[in-house]
């Protein structure tokens, strides 16, 4: 249970990190953070959380919830915590790779807006490589195989195929949960 992930929000409720349950508890215990209730989004300090979500070690915990067990009691595991003071957004790099380009563009062809499924999608260089186009967040988009073939070695202007959205580098939080199931309580803050 203690290896579960906890989403960390800064003071403005912007997601800035994922941490372990152990570290999350420790931040709350030291009063650096509050627990955000996974259903009501109310804030709890360590004491009020224990008041509501501590049970004897041998008690049966509610179904569908994750609880941590100590020698003497069980405590419901926090899913989201919010920091009390820190309001910054640390600079974090989201890995530049195919999977994250697909996620940024929501598996949608940026030319025809189609969603034909992963098998029929590809990555297109907006300015073709042959014309010096870089492999970057700003120059790579998701395109269905059909559009990619049609566009060929041309720019969107030359091919008369305008882009749905101007590609840019996504935020770190857009990449949270890549390849894993994001808990319901996170979905208000990050894309699942
Ligand atoms: Zn297309």
Tell me about this structure.
- The structure is a single chain.
- The protein is an alpha+beta fold and 192 residues long.
- It folds into two domains: 5-90 and 174-186, no CATH class; 98-159, DNA Binding (I), subunit A (Orthogonal Bundle), CATH 1.10.30.
- Helices cover 18% and strands 21% of the residues.
- The chain has helices spanning 21-29, 46-53, 98-104, 145-151, 156-159; strands at residues 5-9, 15-20, 33-36, 43-44, 54-56, 67-69, 73-76, 80-83, 121-125, 140-144.
- Strands 2-1-8-3-4 form a five-stranded mixed β-sheet.
- The radius of gyration is 22 Å and the shape is elongated.
- The chain starts with a strand and ends in a 33-residue tail after the last helix.
- Zinc ion (ZN) binds next to strand 10 and helix 4.
- Residues 109, 111-112, 114, 143-144, 146-147 line the site of zinc ion (ZN).
Defining traits:
5-stranded mixed beta sheet; binds zinc ion; DNA Binding (I), subunit A; 10 strands; 18% helix; alpha+beta; 21% strand; elongated; 3-stranded antiparallel beta sheet; 192 residues; 2 domains
